[in-house]
Amino acid sequence: MTVLSVNLNKIAWVRNSRGGHRPSVVEAASIAIQSGAKGITVHPRPDQRHINPRDVHDLAVLLANKHPEIEFNIEGNPMAAADAQGYPGFDAFVESHQPAQATLVPDSNDQLTSDHGFDLSRFDTELAERIAHYQSHGARVSLFMDPDLGQIEQAKAHGADRIELYTGPFAQLFWSYGADHQATQTSLRTYQHAAEFATKIGLGVNAGHDLDLQNLPAFLSFTTVQEVSIGHALISDALERGLATAVKEYVKVLTK
Fold first, then answer.
1. Does the active-site annotation cover 21?
2. CATH number, position 133
């Protein structure tokens, strides 16, 4: 069964737009868990536009003390170093909070959102060392990847435990042409083959980016994945339905 990890970035972004403590990422995490989420995801960026180091600490404490069965997934660029504005560096998040999963993304510091997977056409020794380092702190390591078989094979060679398939291109085709269009169907087959290949070579498979209640059923009809990480669409739905209802609707799709 595919499980849901709820990305709380947008909750923190709304809070930061006004300052103060509302809405609370800890309360949002609690609601998501009570509503069926099996994981909590955060992506603390160096500019702290949404999730900040205190949020990561508070969520780690919540999960460790009250929900040890729920996975904590910390996303970020493994090369992001500490800075003078209070960002401790990605390494510090993993070392201090020992998440169940570290999802590594090739984002630049000022990037709006993750929009491509790693390019591993040349072996990246530093990345392989970072993967091994995070694993030594108890984290399962997932690499954000495009559905390219050669690149996925290199993710395995670098020591990753899983990949997270970047699903943005599929979502854009779905929104533009619908589920039954040839281009959408071709995209779905590409992801299906990528997931099957990854599984064959011993990688777990996650997926995420621009998945929503409309396109997720079509994606899952072709592609078997262990986890989807959803934030923007789910929080958008929560503005209309309430957070608990939105999470339950995504869980219902995943458990069909």
1. no
2. 3.20.20.70
